[in-house]
Write a structure and sequence with these properties.
By secondary structure, the chain is mainly α. The chain has a single domain (about 25-165), classed as Up-down Bundle (Four Helix Bundle (Hemerythrin (Met), subunit A)). The chain has 8 helices and no strands. The chain has helices at about 5-20, 25-50, 55-70, 75, 90-95, 95-120, 140-145, 150-165. Bound molecules: heme C. Heme C binds near residues 42, 104, 155 and 162.
């Protein structure tokens, strides 16, 4: 006799749990959505470049352009001071804003390099290992010679580096 009641309660609770993560509104919600857009674009790139992937120039270009469009200032603009409600952004986004913006800018550069690499038709798998990523900021010349694999690796490294330094851990 209690069972239906319990089931009803569970059903009622489910939507609440589902939106717990999605409480953010306004600019915080916008930047979360933007990050999810980045995640989807990276997934497309990963699938394209994976062994057995199609290396479709148009798809690689489009996904890399999405990353390019949503990084750099388009990213930092979504982190105005005080926008911390329901956010996982760490306070050093604002106290170490130079480094934060630097990483957002690096993502933009690597995504642009990926667009260039795809346009050059260099979408076949590299027959050399992924270069160890630069210790200093790469020159435009170096960027223009990046292989798509290297550009992808660099982009993914920037995502991780920024999350390690500027985003709270946990679910
Ligand atoms: C310059 C720093 C920076 C870069 C670069 C960056 N992120 Fe983020 N990302 C953040 C921060 C900070 C948050 C937390 C935002 C918040 O909760 O307000 C976040 C959150 C996320 C989230 C969670 C969104 C949600 O729904 O809560 C995903 C997914 C994500 N990033 C993916 C990516 C991917 C993929 C890349 C690389 C292509 C990337 N990010 C690059 C700083 C960055």
């Amino acid at each position: 006799m209690f069972r239906p009641l319990v089931i009803c309660m569970v059903l009622l609770l489910m939507p609440v749990l589902a939106i717990a993560h999605g409480k953010a509104t306004g600019i915080v919600k916008e930047r979360m959505d933007q990050m999810v857009t980045l995640k989807d674009a990276m997934k497309t790139l990963k699938d394209e470049l994976a062994p057995g992937g199609s290396y479709d120039t148009a798809r690689v270009t489009e996904a890399a352009r999405i990353v390019e469009r949503h990084s750099g200032e388009a990213m930092t603009d979504k982190f105005p001071k005080g926008s911390t409600q329901h956010s996982k952004a760490l306070p050093n986004v604002w106290t170490d804003g130079g480094r934060f913006a630097g990483l957002a800018g690096e993502l933009e550069s690597y995504a642009a390099a990926m667009v260039m690499a795809a346009q050059n038709g260099a979408t076949a798998p590299a027959n050399r290992g992924i270069l160890s990523i630069f210790s200093a900021a790469p020159s435009p010349e170096e960027l223009s010679r990046l292989h798509p694999f290297e550009a992808f690796k660099a982009m993914a490294d920037v995502c991780s580096a920024c999350h390690r330094g500027f985003r709270m851990k946990g679910p």
